[in-house]
Amino acid sequence: MRLHLLCGAAVAALSVIPQAAFAQDAKTAELEARVRQLEEALAAVKAELAARPAPAPAAPPVIQIPQAQAPAAAPAPPADGFRIGAHTVKYGGFLKLDAMATQYEDGDLPNSDLGRDFLLPATIPIGGPGDEETHFNARQTRLWLTTDGVVAGRKVGTRVEMDFQTLPGAGDQRTTSPSNLSLRRAFITVDNWLFGQEWSTFQNTAVLPETADYIGPTAGTIFVRQAQVRYTRGPFSIAVENPETTVTPFRGGARILADDSVMPDIAAKFELKRPFGDFALAGLVRQLAVEEGAVDDKTTGWGVSFSGKVKVGPRDDLRFMITHGEGIGRYVGLNLANDAVVTASGNLEAIPLTAGFAAYRHVWREGLRSNLIYANQVIDNDGALTGLAVNESSQSLHFNLIWSPIRGLDVGAEVMRAERELESGVSGELNRFQAFAKYSF
Description:
By secondary structure, the chain is mainly β. It has one domain (82-167, 180-440): Porin (Beta Barrel). The protein has two helices and 22 strands. It has helices spanning 2-51, 383-386; strands at 82-84, 87-104, 131-137, 142-151, 154-166, 180-190, 193-199, 225-233, 236-241, 245-248, 256-258, 265-274, 277-292, 295-312, 316-326, 340-342, 348-350, 352-365, 368-379, 391-403, 409-422, 427-440. A 16-stranded antiparallel beta barrel has the order 2-4-5-6-7-8-9-12-13-14-15-18-19-20-21-22. Strands 11-10-16-17 form a four-stranded mixed β-sheet, with no helix packed on it. A hairpin with a 3-residue loop joins strand 14 (295-312) and strand 15 (316-326). The longest helix is centred in the N-terminal third of the chain and has 50 residues, at 2-51. The protein is elongated.
C-alpha cells in the first residue's frame, strides 16, 4: 500500500517538472527582449549626442566686489509751522537779558522810569547832581504768533506780537520783578489790505540798525505803532491811521494829550529796491485838534521822510533816515517834541522839527559785526509861545560789537552817549554801557 502511494507521488512530481521548465524559459525570453530594447534606445541616444557640436568652454567665474553703500540722505528738516484747517500757524520770538551801567551827569531817574531800560530822550535828567546806577532786566523778551492761508480764494493772514516792556504800576525789583505783557502788533491781512495795529506806514523799519538798546537812534527816527487800515500795491502803500495830538500849553506846562481829531492821519510810502540798496520815501498829512477848556482849534500837520540802506562792499552797509515836518512830534523820537503849541489867542500852531540818523554796519568776520550810529533831532520852537523849558534838541552816539557763536544766539556790548538840551540852553547827558544776550527761536 505504501509502495503504491510512493509510486503515485513520484509519477505526479515527474509530470510537473517539464511544465515548470517551460514557464522559466518563457520569462527568460521576455527579459532578453526588454534588454535588447534598452540597448537599442541607449545606442540611439549615443548617436544623437555624438552628432551635436561640442559646447564652448565655460568662462571663468567673475568675482563680484561689493560697492560701498552711499550714505543715507539726511532727514528732512521739520516743517516750518503746523496746519490748523486752511491755515499754517507759526510762532516764535526771542528771550533777551540786558545789563546796563549808566552814569547820569545832571540828575537821576526814578526806579520805575522806562528811561532806565532804554534810551528815552525826553527823560534824560537835567538840572541835578549826577548819579550812577546798574540795572538788569529781561523785559524786551518778545513772543509772536502768525497764521497764513487761503480762504475762499483770498490770501488771509494774521499776526499777534507782544513783549514785556511795561511795568505793573511803579514796578517792584525787590522780590519778583514783574512786568506786564503788552501788545506790540495785532493785525489781519486780506490780499493787499491790512487791518489792525502795525508799524506806521510813515516809518521804515527796514533801516533800523542792530543795537543793544531797545531802539538805538531814538531821537532821529520815526517810531510809532498804531491802529490803521492800509492798502499796499507793489511798492506803494497808503493808510489811514489813528489820530492823536500832543500839545504844549501857552508859555509851557504839562503836555496836553488831545484825542479830538475827527480826521484820521493819512500816511503813504513808496519803496524802491535796487541791486546796490533799498530806499523809501514817505509822507504824512494829519489834522491837529484840541478842545481843552478855552482852547478849541484845529490846524494841519505834515511830514516827509527819506530813508535807505546802501550796500558797501560785499557785507557792510550804510543806513540812514532824514525826516522833516510840522506837527509830527509824536511820530519822531518817542514824542520828544509836541505836535503843536497854543498861542496867546487860543489857536494851535504846529511845531516844526528836523530829525535823522546814520548808521554804518561793518562785518569783521562771519558772525561778528559792529554798528556805529549817530542820531539827532532839532526842534524849531517859538520860545515866546512854548516857554524856555521845552526840549530844543537831542542827540546820541552808539558803538557796539555783536557776536553770534551759534545760530539764533547773539551776545554783545554797546557804549552810548546821549544828550538832551532845553530851549533855555540847559542840558543833561548820560553815558551807558550795555551788555546783552539774546536767543531767537
